[in-house]
UniProtKB/TrEMBL annotation:
Pfam families: Peptidase_M23. It comes from Streptomyces lavendofoliae. GO terms for molecular function: metalloendopeptidase activity. Residues 64-128 form a coiled coil. Signal peptide: none annotated. This is Peptidase. Residues 154-245 form the M23ase beta-sheet core domain. Residues 7-20 have a biased composition (Basic residues).
């Protein structure tokens, strides 16, 4: 048996029907963007709505989701800023370390150059240094001493006291121009010094250098003796302005002018 409603009389929608319709309406408003202007006051006015109210429509969930997204974005921005600051700090530290390394390299290079200059200066001084031809000796016969023993009538050099076989060295740096027998000088060595002067070493018992050889200050050139026109073992030493006999200069003054204390 079928039942029909009376004409003109309608029953009110059920509570479930009203709720479904409200949900659909809210969804539509959310889609069109109106929910932001209409729903927010309702949410603020009824934060503790009972079941079946606006809270149950999903609107609050949308708001909460937006808030969470904003928090995530803020956190991401903070993390990005922190990463940028860390990168900037690391770059600054790397730059500081590179600058420190560069300065250290400059100091090392400066120290190396200073050492090289000091070494060159020391070598220059060594090459320009002069010393006595026989260590620990003394002058036994002075320059220009007169007597019949010398063909010129006077002593053209000075004699250093020395036992036979004493080491004789070059007084400075130079090149040997004569090495061997020298007549009245016996075994002798003549050296052209680096400053253009000449030195001669006579009456040697033996010669240990040869012509053309370069010698350094203090380098052995022979051994003392009594060869040639000699009355006994000693070293005859001359300083000359040239290689020629007769261009002699005062040997003591010559050595002292080069820093030798005698």
């Amino acid at each position: 048996m079928a039942f029909t409603r009376a004409t003109g009389k309608h029953r009110a929608p059920s509570r479930l029907s009203r709720k479904s319709a409200h949900v659909a309406g809210v969804a539509a408003l959310a889609t069109t963007g109106v929910i932001g202007t209409l729903a927010s006051p309702a949410l603020a006015a009824a934060p503790d709505a009972a079941p079946g109210s606006l809270e149950d429509t999903g609107l609050n969930q949308a708001v909460i989701t937006d808030t969470l997204a904003e928090q995530i974005d803020a956190q991401a921005e903070a993390q990005e800023l922190e990463a940028q600051e860390a990168a900037a700090k690391a770059a600054a530290q790397a730059k500081a370390e590179a600058e420190a390394k560069r300065r250290a390299e400059i100091r090392v290079e400066a120290a190396r150059e200073a050492k090289e200059r000091a070494d060159r200066e020391a070598e220059r001084k060594r090459l320009n240094a002069f010393q006595p031809p026989i260590a620990g000796s003394y002058v036994s016969t002075g320059y220009q001493t007169g007597g019949a023993m010398w063909s010129s009538g006077s002593h053209t050099g000075i004699d250093f006291h020395a036992a036979s076989g004493s080491q004789v060295v070059s007084v400075g740096a130079g090149t040997v121009v004569e090495a061997g027998w020298g007549g009245a000088y016996g075994n002798n060595v003549v050296i052209r010094m680096n400053d253009g002067t000449y030195t001669q070493y006579g009456h040697l018992s033996s010669v240990s250098v040869s012509a053309g050889q370069t010698v350094m200050p203090g380098q052995q050139i022979g051994l003392s003796g009594s060869t040639g026109n000699s009355s006994g073992p000693h070293l005859h030493f001359e300083a000359r302005a040239s290689a020629d006999y007769g261009s002699d200069i005062d040997p003591l003054a010559y050595l002292r002018s080069h820093g030798v204390s005698i």
